[in-house]
Amino acid sequence: MLVETINNRTANAATESTVLGPFHMVTSPRRALGDSIDLVGTGPRCVLEGRVLSAAGTPLPGAELDVWQANDQGFYDVQQPGVQPAGNGRGLFTAGQDGGYWFRTIVPTYYPIPTDGPVGTLLQSTKRHPYRPAHIHFIVTAPGHRTLTTHIFVAGSPYIESDAVFAVKKSLITEFTPVGDPATAARYGLTGPFQLANFDIVLQPEN
Ligand SMILES: [Fe+2]
């Protein structure tokens, strides 16, 4: 995390980066804007939306977003082959003409990093817990811009102040607001209550 922070000093209003983590897959399923990346249907439903912008505030149509997250039990699909369908919690999206993106999913939960190796010994020696607060991973790319690897963190998640891997940056903490209004739900192709999170992504110029 220290190396990541040194290598990705953020200029101007650009979105801050954070660690890639070990659960990214290079073959995420391509999905259309508005699709659900949750293929199981358990856990609190939510919608994530926002725009991909340049540092000058102009929309970046066609920006690519690679997203991945744990399920409501704190596991990624690759940790539970045969339990979760492959590609659950993952998706590749292309931002629209206005730079906008949105997709449906479930609110992920916090999870422990594996403690059965040297990292476990390190955590024990430093008297630190192994938990990471709830988050959704992003890699965002657009021509002429620096690739951004980041997460959004669910505001109010347990461990938001003590992430085992020190990856939380305040600007990445995002409110997931409960929505009960059926008309709003219908706008997102949902029925019943859900949570709505808005996260604009600002990319730095390449040079
Ligand atoms: Fe993660």
Written overview of the protein:
By secondary structure, the chain is mainly β. The protein has three helices and twelve strands. It has helices spanning 2-7, 118-125, 182-187, and strands at 45-54, 64-69, 90-94, 100-106, 111-112, 131-132, 135-141, 148-154, 173-174, 177-179, 194-198, 201-203. Strands 1, 4, 10, 11 and 12 form a five-stranded mixed β-sheet that branches. Strand 7 (135-141) and strand 8 form a beta hairpin. It is globular, with a radius of gyration of 17 Å. The model has no long low-confidence stretch (mean pLDDT 95). Fe (ii) ion is lined by residues 21, 23, 135, 137.
The coarse overall form would be globular
Which molecules other than protein and nucleic acid are bound?
A: fe (ii) ion
Helical content band: under 10%
As residue ranges, the low-confidence spans are none
Q: What's the Cα radius of gyration? A: 17 Å
**Distance from first to last alpha carbon:** 23 Å
Q: Which structural class matches the secondary elements?
A: mainly beta
Annotation field: number of helices: 3
Q: Per DSSP, what share of the residues sits in E-state strands of 2 or more residues?
A: 25-35%
How many beta strands in the DSSP annotation? 12
Mean pLDDT across residues: 95
Spell out the helices and strands N to C.
HEEEEEHEEEEEHEE
What profile does the largest beta sheet have?
5 strands, mixed
Quick summary of this structure?
This protein is mainly beta and 207 residues long. Helix content is 10%, strand content 29%.
